Amino acid sequence: METTGINYNPHQMVELRKIVNGESTFAYYKATELEEMLFANPSFVALEHMPDGTFKEHTVTRSDVSELYRIAQYREARLQAQEKQMGQILNNLNIDGWYSDSIDKSEVLRDLCEIMGYTPQQEMQWSVMISVSGTTLVNLDEVEDFDIRYHLADNLSVDSNDFDTKVDSWDIDSVDSQDWE
Q1: CA 103/CA 107 separation, integer angstroms
Q2: What span, in angstroms and rounded, lies between the C-alpha atoms of 53 and 76?
Q3: How far is residue 19 CA from its own chain's centroid?
Q4: Taking all residues of the chain, what is their mean pLDDT, rounded to a whole number?
Q5: Nearest CA-CA partner of 149 in 168, 136, 167, 159
Q6: DSSP the chain
Q7: Which of 18-26's residues contact partners 24+ apart within 8 Å by CB, and which partners?
């Protein structure tokens, strides 16, 4: 069973848009009221507002009530976190804080990044010369026509092992030797 870390509150208010005869209203329901509606009628049809602005019929079930509750709890937690961040910022906007003559711009930016949980980054361009050596097995009937440059262009790759580094391009400039053992 998947848990969300959110305690169930049967009195949590959930806002739903109710459309009757083309009239749109927003109604608030307790989670228990939605459960009772679904107990009396295990599912009912509602209009779901799609990202493109259209509406699509959606059959509401008991699991939808849980999802609506989870979304409401997530929004509430996110709102509380943002209010806390704004409070920390506002507390620093005074003569003893960021307006002090002894405070440097870099300190203010560092504090803001810490409050917001943001790590500033800058992209750095680089170029590197790599020397690669290796061996390749070649079928005996292909030895005379075999060109290692084409083989390596098709089969050798340069890539990164992390998400912060990307290889934009690579090329084989020269092949120093093509010796047969």
Answers
A1: 7
A2: 25
A3: 33
A4: 82
A5: 136
A6: ----S----TT-EEEEEEEETTEEEEEEEEHHHHHHHHHHSS-EEEEEEPTTS-EEEEEE-HHHHHHHHHHHHHHHHHHHHHHHHHHHHHHHSSTTTTTSTT--HHHHHHHHHHHHT----------------------GGGTTT--HHHHHHHH-----SSSS-----------------
A7: 19/47
Q: Which residue has the tokens 């943001």?
A: 118
Residue 7 in tokens: 């305690």
pTM attached to this predicted model: 0.46
What is the tens place of the pLDDT at every residue in 10-44? 777 777 776 677 777 777 878 778 777 777 776 66
Tokens of 178: 């093509």
Q: Which two tokens stand for residue 57?
A: 């019929």
The C-alpha atoms of residue 38 and residue 62 are separated, in whole angstroms, by 6
CA distances from 132 to 56, 152, 180 (A): 58, 11, 17
Q: Return phi, psi of residue 112, to 5°.
A: -60, -45
Place of tokens 């061996």: 135
pLDDT of residue 66: 72
Which one-letter amino acid corresponds to residue 174? Answer: S
Return d(Cα 165, Cα 55) in angstroms, integer.
42
